[in-house]
Design brief:
Elements: H1 2-23, E1 27-32, H2 36-43, E2 47-52, E3 57-61, E4 63-66, E5 69-72, E6 89-90, E7 94-102, H3 104-133
Antiparallel strand pairs: 1-7, 2-3, 2-7, 4-5, 5-6
Helix pairs in contact: 1-3
Length: 135
């Protein structure tokens, strides 16, 4: 049982660290029903996935509307270099837009699954320690 007592603090720290990571959540693209100018004005998304009339998809970082065109405002990277902007797209060529959003269902399943794995590992360690100390 001493082995279990020594492993328990480490396992709890690992479980807590994993839970912190998992609580940040899963995200997925959420299609927006509003037109692109309204989505950008109201939500100010850092990224916007655009589906064009030819069914191709482009992800814009820091999207902005200028006139009747969607553009990407380049931002400096951590090294000071400016990332190249994607090509401007006329609003008439956009069929739909999507923004990243939290997916509570996926997050819940991920947390429950991870807790089950951690519980199984703790049980296996405790069972192993109990059977080896009995010999």
């Amino acid at each position: 049982m001493r082995l279990v007592a020594r492993c328990r603090p480490r396992a709890l720290v690992c479980a807590q660290a994993q839970l912190v990571v998992l609580v940040s959540g899963c995200s997925s693209w959420k299609v927006q029903l509003a037109p692109p100018p309204e989505v950008i004005a109201k939500q100010h998304p850092p990224k916007l996935r655009v589906t064009k009339t030819d069914h191709s998809e482009v992800v814009f970082e820091n999207p902005e509307i200028r006139g009747d065109t969607l553009i990407e405002v380049p931002t400096p990277s951590s090294r000071g270099a400016v990332a190249p902007a994607s090509r401007p797209i006329p609003l008439a060529d956009i069929t739909r837009v999507a923004v990243r959003g939290r997916d509570e269902g996926k997050t819940f399943l991920l947390v429950i699954g991870s807790l089950a794995v951690v519980g199984g590992v703790l049980y296996a360690v405790a069972y192993s320690a109990a059977t080896s100390s009995g010999n």
